[in-house]
From TrEMBL:
The lineage of its organism: Bacteria, Bacillati, Actinomycetota, Actinomycetes, Micrococcales. GO terms for molecular function: carboxypeptidase activity. SUPFAM superfamilies: Hedgehog/DD-peptidase. This is Carboxypeptidase YodJ. It comes from the Bacteria. Residues 1-127 form the D-alanyl-D-alanine carboxypeptidase-like core domain.
């Protein structure tokens, strides 16, 4: 990951641990080639339309920017599933990630704007100021927060 995002992630994991929450890293930086196989995996499982709701086409993944991170709960339950939001790590991240510059990038009810099903495990680093402003504003999609057009099919 990029240095700023990586050190913010380290601080976030330490703060979670101090609160008794064990968070794991499931995925950080992905190369183009890795994204080719990740996306192809979902095409094989769900077909292309299904894959597009849960995975980015190669060249379009936030994981390729070095600013995105998938987290899990140490229990392993609900990893990469929507119920992750209800695990200790998931609820801690929803409440605290912004303090470290991260946002929950794909939230419920935002699919028409972001193009993705909810992913309570996918964090995107935008810096502490913007993350705090966004959390304070109640806006749920980064596109809306930055005044960008909805991007339901940019992947
Ligand atoms: Zn992700």
């Amino acid at each position: 990951m990029r240095a700023a995002a990586a050190s913010a992630a380290e601080e976030m994991f330490a703060a979670a641990a101090a609160d008794g929450v064990s968070m794991t890293v499931l995925s950080g930086f992905r190369s183009y080639d890795t994204q080719v196989s990740t996306y192809q995996h979902w095409v094989n499982v769900n077909g292309q339309a299904g894959a597009d709701r849960v995975s980015a086409r190669p060249g379009y993944s936030e994981h390729q920017t070095g600013l995105a991170l998938d987290i899990g709960d140490a229990s392993g339950s609900c990893n990469l599933a929507e119920c992750f939001a209800d695990t200790p790590a998931g609820s801690w991240a929803a409440e605290n990630a912004h303090r470290f510059g991260f946002i929950i990038r794909y939230q419920p009810g935002q699919e028409a704007v972001t193009g993705y099903s909810p992913e309570p495990w996918h964090l995107r680093f935008i810096g502490t100021k913007d993350a705090a402003d966004m959390a304070g504003s109640g806006v749920k999609a980064l596109e809306t927060f930055y005044g960008l057009p909805a991007a339901p099919d940019y992947r």
